[in-house]
C-alpha cells in the first residue's frame, strides 16, 4: 500500500510524534479526568476554618485563577500569583497537537514524491524483490538509473523535518518555562533537593515551583456586586502530582533536545559519508557520479529489504554506472 510508505520517518521523528504525544496525552487526561484527585482545589475560609460549608463555585473559580503565595519577610512580603495552575492541562493538550506537526509535515512531503518511487518502496517489501529477474527488481533498478541526481531535495527535506521536530522541543521548553514563571528551564537541576524537602514551610525550590498550599483573597475588584473581602486558604491537590510529572518531563525534553541536535549535526556533517559507505558494496570506489540524495534513497530501501536483496540491487545499478 503506497499510503504506508515512510520515506522520511526515522527514529527521531517517531520519538516525537509517537512517544512524546502519548506522554502529553496522559498528562492532559490525568488532570482533566481527575485520575489523581476528585477535586483540584479545596479551600477554607481563613476566618472560620472549622466550617463545613463548601466554597461556592463562583469564589472557587476566582481562587483557581488567582491563588498566591506570600514570599519575603517583614515589609518586603509580596504576593506571587500562581496564575499558571489552571492552564497546565490545556498546555498538555496544545502540545499533543504540536508534536504531531512533524508527522503531518512528513506525510505532506511524502505525497510530493513520484508514483514510481512510492511503487518501488512498496515493492521492496515483496519476497520476489531480491530476484534480479523479477519485474519489481527491474523496475527499481530502472527507476534509480533514470532519476540519478534528482533526489537531493529528499535528503535535505529529511534534515529539515528533524529540525522541525527540534523546534517543537524548544517551543515546548519555552512554553512550560513561561507558564511556570521561569522555573521550568532549571527545574531538573533541583533534583538533589528531593532529599532535603522542607514540609514545614515549603521553602525548597520544588515546593516553591508547585506550592501545595496557597492563599486566595476575594476582594472588591473580583466581584461584580459589592461585598466584603474574604480570605481563603487552599490546598492545590494536583501540585504533588505536577512536581513528579514535570521532573520526568524536564529530563525527557532535555534528552530529546540533545539527541535531536546531535543527530541533525551528525547527518549534516557525516551523513553523506555514512550513507554512501553503507550503500556501496565491498570493493567499489566512490566518485561524484551519483549524489547523496540517490544514496539516501538506497539507504531507505535497506529498511524494507534484507542485506542480500540490497546487495543485488546496488550491484545491478553500479554495474551499469561504474564508480571509478
From TrEMBL:
Keywords: Cell junction, Cell membrane, Gap junction, Ion channel, Ion transport, Membrane, Transmembrane, Transmembrane helix, Transport. PROSITE patterns: PANNEXIN (PS51013). Its main location: other. GO terms for biological process: monoatomic ion transmembrane transport. InterPro entries: Innexin (IPR000990). It comes from the Eukaryota. One of its GO terms (cellular component) is plasma membrane. It is a multi-pass membrane protein. It is found in: Cell junction, Gap junction; Cell membrane. GO terms for molecular function: gap junction channel activity. The chain crosses the membrane at residues 15-37, 83-101, 155-176, 245-269. Structural component of the gap junctions. Belongs to the pannexin family. This is Innexin. It comes from Meganyctiphanes norvegica.
Amino acid at each position: 500500500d503506497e499510503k504506508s510508505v515512510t520515506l522520511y520517518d526515522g527514529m527521531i521523528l517517531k520519538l516525537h510524534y509517537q512517544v512524546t504525544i502519548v506522554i502529553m496525552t496522559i498528562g492532559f487526561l490525568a488532570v482533566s479526568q481527575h485520575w489523581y484527585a476528585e477535586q483540584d482545589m479545596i479551600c477554607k475560609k481563613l476566618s472560620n476554618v472549622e466550617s463545613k460549608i463548601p466554597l461556592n463555585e463562583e469564589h472557587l473559580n476566582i481562587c483557581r485563577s488567582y491563588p498566591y503565595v506570600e514570599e519575603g519577610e517583614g515589609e518586603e512580603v509580596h504576593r506571587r500569583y500562581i496564575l499558571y495552575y489552571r492552564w497546565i492541562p490545556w498546555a498538555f493538550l496544545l502540545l499533543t497537537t504540536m508534536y504531531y506537526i512533524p508527522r503531518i509535515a512528513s506525510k505532506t512531503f511524502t505525497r510530493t514524491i513520484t508514483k514510481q518511487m512510492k511503487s518501488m518502496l512498496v515493492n521492496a517489501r515483496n519476497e520476489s524483490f531480491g530476484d534480479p529477474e523479477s519485474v519489481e527488481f527491474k523496475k527499481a533498478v530502472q527507476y534509480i538509473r533514470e532519476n540519478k541526481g534528482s533526489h537531493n531535495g529528499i535528503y535535505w527535506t529529511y534534515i529539515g523535518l528533524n529540525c522541525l521536530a527540534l523546534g517543537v522541543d524548544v517551543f515546548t521548553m519555552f512554553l512550560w518555562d513561561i507558564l511556570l514563571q521561569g522555573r521550568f528551564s532549571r527545574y531538573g537541576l533541583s533534583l538533589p533537593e528531593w532529599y532535603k524537602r522542607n514540609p514545614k514551610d515549603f521553602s525548597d525550590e520544588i515546593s516553591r515551583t508547585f506550592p501545595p498550599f496557597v492563599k486566595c483573597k476575594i476582594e472588591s475588584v473580583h466581584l461584580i456586586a459589592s461585598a466584603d473581602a474574604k480570605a481563603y486558604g487552599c490546598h492545590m491537590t494536583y501540585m504533588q502530582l505536577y512536581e513528579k510529572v514535570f521532573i520526568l518531563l524536564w529530563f525527557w525534553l532535555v534528552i530529546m533536545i540533545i539527541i535531536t541536535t546531535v543527530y541533525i549535526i551528525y547527518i549534516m556533517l557525516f551523513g553523506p559519508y555514512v550513507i554512501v559507505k553503507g550503500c556501496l558494496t565491498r570493493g567499489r570506489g566512490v566518485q561524484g557520479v551519483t549524489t547523496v540524495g540517490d544514496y539516501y534513497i538506497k539507504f531507505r530501501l535497506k529498511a524494507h529489504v534484507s542485506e542480500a536483496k540490497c546487495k543485488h540491487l546496488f550491484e545491478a545499478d553500479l554495474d551499469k554506472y561504474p564508480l571509478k
